[in-house]
Amino acid sequence: MSRIRSIDNDFLFALFEVQRxxxxxxxxQASRYGLTRAQWAVLAKLERTEGLKQTEVAELMExxxxxxxxxxxxxxxxxxxxxxxxxxxxxVNRLYLTRTARPMMAKLAALRSEITRAALADISxxxxxxxxxxxETVKDNVRSALQNGGPTNNNKVKExxxx
Length: 163
Prior knowledge:
Elements: H1 7-30, H2 37-48, E1 52-53, H3 54-60, H4 65-77, E2 81-85, E3 93-97, H5 101-119, H6 125-148
Antiparallel strand pairs: 1-3, 2-3
C-alpha cells in the first residue's frame, strides 16, 4: 500500500535540493573555463546590461558589495571585464565586457545549454515549458508574498523575470 505524501513534505525540500545540485553542477562545469558560477553570473549580468555600476550589479545579484568587488577584481585580472569611469560622476565605475570576454560568452552560452539538457533529460519539451511556466508562477507567488504578505493575484498578466 503506497503512502500518500503531503506536498508540505516534498515541495521545498525538492526545490532546494534541485537548486543545490544545479549550483554544484554549474560550478563544476564553469571550472572547465577557469571560472566559478558566481563569476559566470557576473559576466551574464553584464552581457545583458553592460555599463552597470558595481552597486547595481551587487544589488541585482543580492551580493555584498565587497564580495562583488573581489569577483570583479578577478574578472578584470583575467581580462574579461573592465571598469570605466562614469562620465558624469568620477567616483562611479561602470562595468563592461572586454573583447576577450566575447568568445568566452559564446562558450558559456553553449555550457548553459549543456547544463539545461542534462537537467531536463527525460522530460519532454512541452513538459519542460510547462515546468518553467509553473516555476515562474511559484516565483511570482513568493515575490507577492514578500511584498504584500499574501498570495499573488493569479489573474494578472505574468511578467517574465530571470534571476
